[in-house]
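Archive entry: two folds, one per protein. Generate the first.
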Amino acid sequence: MVLVDAPPEVEALLERRRALGQDRFDEVWEGVYHMTPGPSGRHAYLDAQLAIVLAPLAEAAGLVGTTAFTLGLHEKDYRVPDGGYHRSIPEGTWVPTAAVVVEIVSPGDETFDKFPFYAAHDVDEIIVADPDARTIRIFGRGVTGYAETGASRVLGVDSGTITSSVNWPT
């Protein structure tokens, strides 16, 4: 939904969401506010499972893992991936890039629509986990965007190894 000249009720709703911390996963795409619900229990569980599996790989690669973070340069254009792996501990609210972002597919989400933004912010790889299909897909950045590679060059692991290592939610 795009509202032009949003009425005061919408501004009050956004302020209430901010006050309650319900806006943690909301995003702004080139000035357009995307109101995103928090993760379901299955989503959060898979997020934790991926962190367990990927942490030693990231450490071996010299990377630092984070949970959801704000990827972007300012409040008018940012995304909030489910997790990330960085070359150093991110400072501040606005994180300009990441070596790897992790996205967990949810019904009706915009995971794949975020790829051009990630490319514009020099993210090397994207790991996409689909809890319903029980799959891990890995995309590497090339000259014209991302292509599915089947393996992470950054983390030194293939998608099959991650898939078989995850304790998938039922």
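Generate the second and append.
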Amino acid sequence: VGIGYDVHRLVAGRVLFLGGVEFGFDRGLLGHSDGDVALHAAMDALLGAASLGDIGQLFPPGDPRYANVRSVELLRRVAQLVVDQGWHIGHLDLMIIAEEPRLGPRVPEMRRVISQTIGIAPERVSIKATTNEGLGFIGRGEGIAALAVAELIPGDPSNDRAGTSTGEERRG
């Protein structure tokens, strides 16, 4: 199990990407890449669960190769690295904290994009959205944060019956 966290400032002149999905919003997240806090938190959770460091080590923020890169591409590389180390992804749970834009209607699309990117069933990707109730920098609309928890399972994912097995069957 690994945990990830990320936060970025909202600024004018940038496109907003969250969970790999483009949002039509008046500001985007400031970052070396596209600033997608949800995917950055997810990557750190996956890397942490596999004891492979963090995204700053893997994709250094000063490296020009990653300037404005889409985070879905980085997530795809992280998922492959995890698989190459003998793991498969059991579940990914994300919490996005933002005052705006409204995220709920786009959650199914984010789940689909993430699940396709990391190669698991959409039912094994959970995304929740909440606000900061007007408190702090997030509450003032200055930034967006995300938390993630990832569960990795050792071995061959084909033993998982295409992502439909329950915990009881795996232990069983």
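Annotation attached to the second fold: The first helix runs from residue 37 to 49. The longest strand covers residues 143-154.
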